[in-house]
């Protein structure tokens, strides 16, 4: 992990908490919930690409509690936070291209801002 990341690590939880309650994140959370509210999906898990600190993973879990929820991100500190805020989710440090899943494996794939 780069030295700058190590220096920022202690501040990350507070940063995620501040950002998740700020205007842009609050608005995006509302838009995401509204878009998902009426969405009917086929069977299968849901995946968020670039899950960051896990805020949308919780929205996915609330909307479809019976489904497996997966998140991926490149940044290990973001994933560490997501493990705390979305313990129900299966997480991977990966890119979409590095995962070995069939094209029709997921009922829904999200990639938000």
Explain what the structure shows.
Helices cover 43% and strands 14% of the residues. The protein is of the alpha/beta class and 113 residues long. The chain has one domain: Rossmann fold (3-Layer(aba) Sandwich). Strand 2, helix 5 and strand 3 form a beta-alpha-beta unit. The radius of gyration is 14 Å and the shape is globular. It starts with a helix and ends with a strand. The mean pLDDT is 85.
Features:
Rossmann fold; 4 strands; 14% strand; 113 residues; alpha/beta
Quote the CATH topology: Rossmann fold
Spatial gap, N to C terminus: 24 Å
SSE run: HHHEHEHEE
CATH superfamily: Vaccinia Virus protein VP39
Beta-strand segment tally: 4
Fraction of residues in β-strands: 5-15%
Total separate domains: 1
Q: Are there runs of 5+ residues with pLDDT below 50, and where?
A: none
Overall helicity: 40-55%
Q: What's the main sheet like?
A: 4 strands, parallel
The mean pLDDT is 85
Give the CATH class: Alpha Beta
- Round the Cα radius of gyration to an integer and report it: 14 Å
Q: Which CATH architecture?
A: 3-Layer(aba) Sandwich
Secondary structure category: alpha/beta
- DSSP helical segment count: 5
**Approximate shape:** globular
Strand order of the largest sheet: 3-2-1-4
């Amino acid at each position: 992990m780069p030295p700058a990341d190590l220096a920022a690590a202690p501040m990350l939880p507070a940063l995620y908490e501040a950002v998740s309650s700020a205007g842009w994140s609050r608005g995006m959370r509302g838009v995401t919930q509204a878009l998902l509210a009426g969405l009917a999906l086929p069977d299968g898990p849901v995946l968020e690409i670039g899950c960051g600190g896990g805020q949308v993973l919780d929205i996915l879990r609330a909307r479809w509690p019976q489904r497996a929820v997966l998140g991926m991100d490149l940044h290990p500190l973001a994933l560490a936070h997501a493990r705390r805020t979305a313990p129900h989710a299966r997480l991977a440090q990966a890119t979409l291209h590095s995962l070995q899943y069939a094209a029709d494996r997921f009922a829904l794939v999200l990639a938000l801002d």
